[in-house]
What we know:
CATH superfamily of the largest domain: Dihydroxyacetone kinase, domain 1
Largest sheet: 6 strands, mixed
Shape: elongated
Low-confidence stretches: 348-352
Keywords: ATP-binding, Kinase, Nucleotide-binding, Transferase
Strand content: 5-15%
GO molecular function: ATP binding; glycerone kinase activity
Protein name: Homodimeric dihydroxyacetone kinase
Number of helices: 17
Pfam family, one: Dak2
Structural class: alpha/beta
CATH class of the largest domain: Alpha Beta
Amino acid sequence: MKKLINDPANAVAEMVAGLVAVQPGLTRIAGRNVVLRADLPAPADRKVAIISGGGSGHEPAHAGYVGAGMLTAAVLGDVFTSPSVDAVLEAIQATAGPAGALLIVKNYTGDRLNFGLAAEIARAGGIPVEIVVVGDDAALEGIVAQERRRGIAGTVLVHKVAGAAAEQGRDLAAVAQLAGRAADAVRSMGVALGSCTLPSAKAPSFTLGDEEIEFGLGIHGEMGARRSAMLPASRIVSDMLDRLVEDLGERSREPLALVVNGLGATTQLELMVVASNALDDLSRRGVKVARVWAGNFMTALEMPGCSLSLMPLDDELSDLIDEVTLAPAWPGPGLIDEKPTVAAPTATDDILAGEADGPVSDAVRKAMLAIAEALDAAEQKLTELDSVAGDGDLGASMVRGAVALRGVAAQQFSTPSKALDALALALRREIAGSSGPFYAIALMRVARLLEGEASPSADLWGKALAEAGEAVSATGGAKPGDRTMLDALAGAAEGWRAARAEGRTGLEAFDAAAAGAAGGAEKTAQMTPKLGRASYLGERVLGHPDAGATAVAIWMDALARSLRG
């Protein structure tokens, strides 16, 4: 596993140095991996200090939550390793005044020992200290006793409640009581799609098969409570919420805070899919979500996966959650806003109006369905080719095109022009990127050429092929030889012209056009790209045909075969 570090032994210290350099509200204890608020007043004027921490590798936890309204200090150990007693003690001594300090500790043996002993030493030195232990992991029901549950991402909500209470000037007992209420209330569960690798290690902490996931894991790269086959996001979310809602019992009927937490390698796209599914699922259960956040709160290095946290909110906890904080990693109030969706503009297109079938309607519908089937079958091939020189989305785009084709095939169109106009509309709506617009432009141009023709002649179909290529060239600026879909379209048009020049029939000319498209696509394997994403790679793509040109060859072949039989 490649990582952007220097010496693994110094990675945490360098991370802390970078963090305090880029966050003006943060400072550190010299030579220690302890991050503090930079705006602390004189000791006599300080409010209750809120201190948390643990092993590193969970960023933005814990140092990202240092700031007015959340933590006063974060004590960072090595990756996945509890900080030392002395480091915790120094954090207490550096931040606590007469009001004392509250330590928020995740329920791991190392953290409890080191924070607990530091608290004892501080108390012996005259500093009032209380401890709240967070064990929000609900996945281990029946595996460990409830008091031994691990502390995971729900801990961040405890930070927020305690920090807000301290900022309001409440005394240590009151702050500890509120933090304890939050810790008792919150429940979390995680799922991993893969493992993570420590900076000092050469292999992941565990391995999963390509189609396996791990439910109920912690945040230190350890395995979870059970392994499962890969499931759709909605099923994964539902399985986690089953456990969380069951564990909350009657309290699940109260308004809840929901945290969708990424474990380090999960994209924002995936986290928002999870958030959407979680909100929908909870709504179906009759559970009210009053606050929601989605992002990276407490990660496990580069682990792919997420966790869900639920915390019942009474009025007092809601107010504390809503208090403003200057902690750089806190995302904001998380208020649920009932946003009405904006209705889509009413389509003015009249091209979908049904009319009586024309003489070639059946042939057009049959060809559309044949092309759709061919594009579905070619999804993996097109994805692999597009991944060589592009972003790998062409296979999925062509599958969406196949869906659009089938929708158009179900309509009643009297002429090829009507069908092509309808197809252009469907493709532009279904396929984003460049493929949809290129195909829509070509089809609209051809539809204009064939307008009013119930049964176009062979020569008119040949002209339509050439017109499609010209439309693509004029819009995108490509020319034959640039390694684009135009090379296949140009090959198809040339094959048609040659066949007709030899006196071959229209059906034979379609066969020749399909062969010409295939030949044009194959030639792109030896072309240096001049346009599009592939042009950034230059000669690195040689030996692989262009994905867009290959797609043209695939549907041209399906079209020709459909007309033959």
